């Protein structure tokens, strides 16, 4: 792990967890997408564990679709992961042992139909006038968050996004032979060699809120386009593991990595 920034305990992590997740409808008819499980645990928990590994433990979660499911999970987390003694007569509950992360989690209702930019702006009162981390509740990575923050502070701009190479969805083919139809090589590459995309895992300054007009704003449109136009958007290039969970196929891949003990995002013990 890289050097821990001195003010890290003051930095909050905003996580957008309000989307419907329509392309994962097999799961999201009864729960929000961030609560879809990998290895029996919501992907939201995996993301929070990644941040906590780097000592970012203050979370502000933007809720929307079926936000009550996330609220209930957070409220019940300590008791469900501990031994309990219940006094039926008085209703008193005592917890013993178990896993109790030293996290602070603010759960903020940001509207059912609010767009991504609007959700971020609605979190402004809870994030304060300081640098904050930002990500989506449906993607995992092994990005070094300390180095990401260090890079952001080195250039002095308002926003840094983590640029990643998207996972290859199909086998890569190279041809040769007289008719150029003989396959010379076949490889299932984990990341493509073409281009970079927005992998989220942002670091932002509070001035980015000024780029969001309101609830109908998509973060990926006017705000990021405006920041780029003003020379205020930088990319931290991450060429190691990154995977979003958009479809059932993505979920199956993440499940397989977790089940075989080969999950690159599992940095914690």
């Amino acid at each position: 792990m890289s050097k821990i920034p001195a003010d890290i305990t003051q930095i909050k992590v905003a996580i957008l967890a309000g989307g419907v997740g329509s392309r994962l409808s097999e799961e999201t008819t009864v729960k929000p997408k961030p609560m879809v499980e990998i290895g029996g645990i919501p992907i939201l928990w995996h993301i929070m564990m990644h941040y906590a590994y780097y000592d970012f433990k203050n979370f502000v979660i933007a809720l929307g679709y079926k936000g009550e499911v996330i609220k209930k999970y957070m409220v019940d987390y300590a008791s469900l992961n501990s031994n309990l003694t219940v006094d039926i007569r008085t209703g008193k509950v005592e917890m013993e042992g178990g896993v109790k992360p030293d996290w602070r989690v603010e759960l903020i209702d940001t509207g059912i139909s609010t767009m991504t930019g609007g959700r971020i702006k609605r979190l402004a009162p809870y994030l304060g006038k300081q640098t904050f981390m930002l990500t989506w509740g449906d993607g995992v990575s092994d990005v070094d968050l300390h180095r990401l923050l260090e890079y952001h502070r080195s250039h002095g701009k308002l926003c840094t996004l983590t640029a990643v190479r998207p996972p290859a969805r199909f086998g890569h083919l190279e041809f040769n032979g007289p008719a150029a139809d003989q396959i010379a090589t076949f490889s299932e590459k984990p990341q493509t060699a073409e281009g970079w995309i927005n992998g989220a895992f942002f670091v932002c300054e509070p001035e980015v809120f000024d780029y969001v007009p309101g609830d109908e704003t998509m973060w990926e449109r006017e705000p990021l386009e405006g920041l780029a136009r003003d020379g205020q958007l930088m990319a931290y290039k991450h060429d190691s593991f990154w995977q979003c969970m958009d479809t059932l196929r993505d979920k199956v891949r993440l499940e397989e990595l977790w089940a075989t003990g080969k999950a690159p995002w599992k940095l914690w013990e």
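The chain has a mean pLDDT of 89. The first strand starts at residue 12 and ends at 17.
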